Amino acid sequence: MNEHTRVSDGLYKATTHSGVVGEIHFAPPTAAGSALLVATGPPDHVIGLSGASTHGSEEEIYRAAGLGWIPPAARALPIDEAGGVVMVEGLRRGSAPTQ
Q1: What does the alpha-carbon distance between residue 13 and residue 79 come to, in Å, rounded to a whole number?
Q2: Is 47 helix (H, G, I), strand (E, B) or coil?
Q3: How confident is the model at residue 88 (pLDDT cuts 50, 70, 90)?
Q4: How far, in Å, CA of 13 to CA of 3, rounded?
């Protein structure tokens, strides 16, 4: 690593010697699910989960929001459409998710 900058609590931006820029996120185990969602989820999707618990696994956060777990590939969709994708995928595999 060539240099790094603290952006906020638990977030650093770093640049390698070859110029590649990346983010490094640190979170306590109790907030790992929400940290993962915020770091990797589309902003509109994350906002759609506001009000849900910020502790626990991704599955627990979705459950607290009254939703089944939404796979990362469907998270670019609005929350109401993403739930339909989860149901279709579950039916396709013969195991529709329950909420």
Answers
A1: 29
A2: helix
A3: very low
A4: 9
